[in-house]
Structure formats: C-alpha cells, structure tokens
Amino acid sequence: MDSLNKLIEHFREFPGIGPRQARRFAYFLLNKNPAYLEELSRLVTDIQKTIRICSSCYRFYSVRSGVHEVRFAATAGTGANTNLCPICLDPSRERNLLMIVAHDVDFEAIEKSGSYRGLYFILGGTVPFLEKNPETRIRLRELGMLLQGRSVSEVILSLNANPEGEHTARIVKAFVTELPLKEPVRTTILGRGLSTGSELEYSDADTIMYALKNRS
Ligand SMILES: [Zn+2]
Fold this sequence. Notes:
By secondary structure, the chain is of the alpha/beta class. The protein contains 9 helices and 6 strands; from the N terminus they run αααββααβαβαβαβα. 22% of the residues are buried. It binds zinc ion. Zinc ion (ZN) binds next to helix 5.
C-alpha cells in the first residue's frame, strides 16, 4: 500500500469519519505546503510527550504547565505526582466538592465561568438509553475508587440538560448512593438555569453560575 492509501486508512479510524471523508482529508493534506505538514506531524509526534491524562480527574492537561505545579505541590507538602493535573494539585481548591462532567469541553466551560472552586471528575461520555453495561461507557469504577479513597462531602452532577445527560445523571447518582462509603456523600444536580436541551459547552458564565447556585 502506498503512503497516500495508508494515510487514508488511518483517517478512517477517526471517530465519525467514513471512507469518503478520509480520502478528502488525505487530498486536503496533499494540497498543503511543506511547513504546514511539518508542523502537523510534529504536533502529532509531541502529543504523547506534552499531554497527559490526570490520574485523579481523568482530564487531559499539558505537562509543560504541570511542571511548575508539581514543584509547588512538593514544597506544599502534598507530595509530587507527575500524573496529577494542576487543578488536582492546587491546594486552594475545595477538596470536599467533586463536580462530575461528561467531557473535557464541559470542564473547560465550567472552569472558564470562574464560579466553581472545587475539584472535577471527567466521566468520559454519557450512557445511551439501551446500554445494559454503563461501566463500559463511563468511568464508574474509577469514580468509585476515587470516592472511597478521599473524603468528599458533595458530588455535583453537571451533565447536559438533554435526555441522555439526565439518564446518565440518574445512573451516576444511583451508583454513588450505593457505594459503601465511610461518610455519606450528598449528590446534587446542576439547577435548571440551563434551559432544556442546552449544552454546558455552549453555556455562558452567568448561566453556569446560576445553575450552580440552584443545584439541588
Ligand atoms: Zn486532575
């Protein structure tokens, strides 16, 4: 197989990309200048070296910005762990609050709103209605381990205000309620300042602040 067809095969593995689109991507690249292609291949090579997944909240973070934070945490006596993101290491965050979101983009929207100072947990997706094994779709096992190893007083479910988001919230809430924990955890759901069908990713700071205030 020549390199053009090999590239097309790789693009076909991308989520939501069919054979026609994969082919269009490859031809798009063929029409680009060498500098563009060099930068793109450098970024692809660097991604594993510079981006890590946090072993606590499971969000992707840039290692470069993490280096300073790790040093800071070590001097603050919380111990250095290179697999923890700057937010999980930040001693000024409220560690008894854990906000659960579906994806990294939701985390970004909440964080940008500036109205939340607790920690996060990225579920990694939502659960479709017909799914019999929710743990294959979202990080339930990892969430259980985190809650059993740390004292959290409130879990805030911040999922999209659509049927699948609400279905996922019910599953996570039931899972947390049944966990054998030393101290009871309060589970709240983001207030419906988020209008029905709205997505966190596209909500403005005021809407998120209102939804957070009105959680119940
Ligand atoms: Zn983290």
